[in-house]
Amino acid sequence: MQIEEFTDFTDACFNGESASCSCACPFKLDVRSFTEKCQKGRWSSAWKNYRNAVIFPEIVSALCPAPCREHCQRASLGGAVDIPALERAAIEYSGAKKAEHYNIPPKEHSVAVVGAGPAGLSAALNLAQKRYKVTVFDKAPGWGGSLRSHADFARFDEDIALQFAAVEAEFRFNTEISSPSQLSSYDAVYIATGEGGIDFEGEKFFRGGQLTGMSLMEGIAVGAEVSKLVETYLMTGRAGPVENVSYAFCDRTVEHEDTLPEAEIEVRDEESARAEAARCMKCDCDSCMRSCEVLAHFRKKPRSMAREAFSDSQANPPIATQSLVRETYSCTNCGHCRSVCPEKVDVGAMLMLSRANRFEKGTAPAAFHDYWLREMDFSCGEASAFLPPPGSDACKYAFFPGCRLGMDNVGHLKKAYDCLTRSCDGGVGLMLGCCGAPALWAGDMSRLENNFSAIREAWERMGSPTLVFACATCSNMFEEYLPEIKRISLYELMEKASLPRSSSSYPAAVVFDPCSAREDDAMRRSVRALAAQAGSKLKEAEHGCRCCGYGGHIQVPNPSLFEKISSSRAEENAEPYIVYCANCREVFLSRGKECSHILDLYFGPGEDTPTLQKKRENALRLKKELLKEIWNMDFTPESRPWDGVELIIPPEIQASMEKSLISADDIRETLWRAEQSGDKLTGGGYSLASLRKNAATYWVQYSGEGGVYQVAAAYSHRMKWRE
Predict the structure, then answer these.
(1) Which of 235, 275, 395, 405: CA 20 to 30 A from 359?
(2) How many domains, in total, are found in the chain?
(3) Assigned domain for 646 exists
(4) Are 452 and 570 within one domain?
(5) How far apart are CA 642 and CA 356, in angstroms?
(6) In what order do the strands lie in the sheet with 508-511?
(7) Angle in degrees, CA 201, 203, 206, rounded to 5
(8) Closest residue by Cα to residue 536 from 570, 574, 576
(9) Using CA atoms, how far apart are residues 348 and 552, in angstroms rounded to an integer?
(10) Are the CB atoms for 577 and 512 separated by under 8 Å?
């Protein structure tokens, strides 16, 4: 892969770029760092920061027109930060000052600077600090140029003398240069003779300052750039022209959680200076890193993550390692980072690309998504059914409930389908299957494409109906991968049907929108209308459309982050939740949060969250009952040799199995194979058996015989071992 395939996602990110005030500054002073030092009273450090940027702090603090204040984002909140006053405070309170000295070997090349005004002095100082042999010429009796007539020149004179105190530079005053021949012995020449001054053409001649139309501040600011250009010329014989400092500043507004004083504070002493410095908001765009638990947890910047993701795409384990694995598989793919970014940078999409690349290369940790991919295969295989209405080959609508709703509550799904068949003209078909989100989250794009190919084929056979979705994630997946299919939510059609409500309602509840419904205004609106019709007084969640933690299947790769996110969502509001995502409901109930699915308000109270085993049984039962009751078709689930194994599982072991994604069928198969083959360890009244299944190895400690077994412990790991 090319690096651009990753960095294109984050190129628009301006986190870490200069603040708007710094962009407007001719010297590109790091105002964030400067004001932070001032705020802490670190005056010597603040002065050094300022001096290194502006070259001559006394001159600049007195004469700079301060374009930074015009572009301070606090200006719209009560008053720009008085940066010039802080500059003066840093000069006043910094104590004894020393000139910059750099311990580097002297250079052989000689450079002439014609003009001892601010622009020429700036270039001369920067070149002298690099240990070039610098000679400064000026027809005046001293340095300063246009500043010599200024009322504060005595102070400026001291400033210039201080900055040159630690370098070697020769000054030839009262010397007028009128011909290039006078400078023939120098390897390079910088001409800064001021407006209307002498000017020479030639390869080794560089020009700047007011001679080229620069302002006073620009002339000083380009001194460092001049030294670089001259150095490049001396080393290579080539160099570009000296350019005016760009004022192409960044004025992109960033959000702040601002509790600082709005009005400007008059700087009179150290205390007031520190208070004024504290008003600086240290402007930087960190919206995604502040509000996304994943980015906040790993403390990595989007651009850095994109570069690491590319580096990982080039790694070939075990020769080279990957560095962004945990981060890549901790993303819930909820889209929140993009929704809060002013530039719509989508870190989640970049990480999904990384997952796909890893899966294709065979470097993806298989155990992270093995369970979910097997569940997807089950939902798209044995538990699937694509049928038009009885007695018809085509239909106007087809219900695609997704894989989780029927697993959680067979009755609710059957009632929802019955509601559709009674309220929709043109017949309603049924499409039991999975949208492919597990494949997307695992990075298995081949499996995803095959799944959608099968769905598209079945949809076309049914006359290309409008699909009815109960799950916002399913709807999103179809919008992305099958955009030609028309979509509508179950809740929009239920709202139009004016259904009688059940006795299950909340007088006060919070509507919790799943992250996948962020862009689905119609679904969100219809759910609120249904809840209101059912008699619930609704409140909005404090943070709308946030992931419950289920997205991306991060439970295995980062269980602690999953716990943190899911607990945080559950605790954000004190009132019960009304949800319309089966996964959200499951997560919140597991956290002890009172929660109802919107369908509970119309079809009766929901059931407790079923076990992993029960979910599979529910999916098969749903298919069997619907096919028999509506299509008069028989369906017999596949049988397996271990189906008859009877298990006694204590509640605490069952809870551990659920958390570890171990189903009762996994236990049955492990025990059956061990008993059939004799491959087990025995002792102390227990047997210990293991089974390698795809990426996971299951271990079960048990007792019993004759097909009835008491489970004492069950766990799994992804290590491979040899007998």
Answers:
(1) 405
(2) 5
(3) yes
(4) yes
(5) 35
(6) 537-540, 508-511, 577-579, 595-597
(7) 70
(8) 576
(9) 10
(10) yes
The reply to whether 477 and 602 lie within a common domain is yes
Tens digits of per-residue pLDDT, 453-492? 999 999 999 999 999 999 999 999 999 999 999 999 999 9
Say if CB 385 and CB 432 are below 8 A apart. yes
Rounded CA separation 31/25 (Å): 9
Residue 629: φ, ψ to 5°: -75, -30
**Which residue's entry shows tokens 């390698």?**
692
From 345, 364, 383, give the residue that closes a domain. 364
Question: Tokens 């993701």 — which residue?
Answer: 309
User: Do residues 370 and 692 lie in contact, with contact meaning Cβ atoms separated by under 8 Å?
Assistant: no
- E strand intervals along 126-222: 133-138, 170-173, 188-191, 205-207
> Cα(570)–Cα(590) distance, rounded to whole angstroms?
10
Q: What's the pLDDT score for residue 248?
A: 47
Helices 31-39 and 270-278, interaxial angle, to 10°?
140
- The one-letter amino acid code at 290 reads R
Residue labelled with tokens 């049988």: 639
Provide the residue count of the chain.
723
48 near 97, Cβ under 8 Å? Answer: no
Cβ proximity of 455 and 482 under 8 Å: yes
In the prediction, which pLDDT does 534 show?
87
Q: Please name the residues in contact with 50: beta carbons below 8 A apart, sequence gap of 6 or more.
A: 29, 34, 57, 61, 87, 90, 91
* Angle (nearest 5°) at CA 412 between 407 and 413: 65
Sign of CA dihedral 205, 209, 211, 212: positive
* Residue 224 belongs to a domain: no
Question: Cα 332–335–340 angle (5° rounding)?
Answer: 125
Tokens 């509001």 correspond to 573
Q: Please check whether residues 204 and 260 belong to one and the same domain.
A: no
Q: Residues in the chain with pLDDT < 50?
A: 247-248
Q: Is residue 223, in this structure, part of any structural domain at all?
A: no
Report the amino acid identity of residue 580: Y
> Please, what sign has the CA dihedral across residues 457, 462, 463, 465?
negative
Q: List the structure tokens of 479.
A: 């919008």
> Rounded to a whole number, what is the distance in angstroms from the first to the last CA of the chain?
39
- Determine contact, residues 14/285, Cβ cutoff 8 Å: yes
Q: Which two tokens stand for residue 653?
A: 């072991």
Place of tokens 């979705």: 469
Classify residue 34 as left (phi > 0), alpha (psi -120 to 50) or beta: alpha
Rg of the chain over Cα atoms, rounded to whole angstroms, equals: 36
Q: Please enumerate in sequence order all residues whose Cβ is within 8 A of that of 708, keeping only pairs 6 or more positions apart, or say none.
A: 646, 648
Burial of 638 (0-12, 13-18, 19+ CB in 10 A): exposed
Give the residue from 63, 67, 38 showing the smallest Cα distance to 250: 67
Q: Establish whether the linkage from the previous residue to 318 is cis, with ω within 30° of 0.
A: yes
pLDDT of residue 101: 81
**What CATH number is associated with residue 188?**
3.40.50.720
- pLDDT (tens digit, 9 = 90+) per residue, 525-573? 999 999 988 888 889 988 889 999 999 999 999 999 999 999 999 999 9
Do 528 and 585 reside in the same domain of the chain?
A: yes
Residue 386 pairs in a beta bridge with 431
Range of the structural domain that residue 691 is part of: 641-717
CA 411 to chain centre: 39
Give the Cα separation of 433 and 401 in Å (integer).
8
pTM exceeding 0.70? yes
Residue 245 DSSP class = P
**290 in the same domain as 270:** no
201 and 313 share a domain? no
Q: Are residues 376 and 394 in the same domain?
A: yes
Q: What is the pLDDT of residue 247?
A: 45
Q: Please, are residues 50 and 90 in contact by the beta-carbon 8 Å criterion?
A: yes
For tokens 């799904």, what's the residue? 413
Tokens encoding 619:
């999916």
Task: Please list the residues that pair with 713 across neighbouring strands.
Answer: 701
The answer to whether position 188 is within a domain reads yes
Pair (394, 433) in one structural domain: yes
